[in-house]
Amino acid sequence: MLRLVLALAVTSFAISPAYAAPCRDAKGKFAKCPKAAPVKAVRCKAATGKFAKCGTPGAKPI
Question: Is residue 48 over pLDDT 60?
Fold first, then answer.
């Protein structure tokens, strides 16, 4: 039982730097994590040139 607890403690310490790595600067100091880029919405146009729902027949992404 003690070995199991010790093994879990060691693995949790070994894994934790992997999560913190993206939020550190080149010198290893903590910095703000970059925000995820917003997903750009896909817009489609129909054959007539007007905006239409994507997935309708004849609509193409612009």
Answer: yes
The rounded distance, in Å, linking the Cα atoms of 20 and 29 is 10
Taking the model in full, what pTM does it have? 0.36
Of 42 and 13, more confident: 42
Size of the chain in residues: 62
Q: How far apart are CA 44 and CA 58, in angstroms?
A: 10
Separation CA 62–CA 45 (nearest Å) = 7
Helix/strand/coil percent split, the chain, to 5:
35, 15, 50
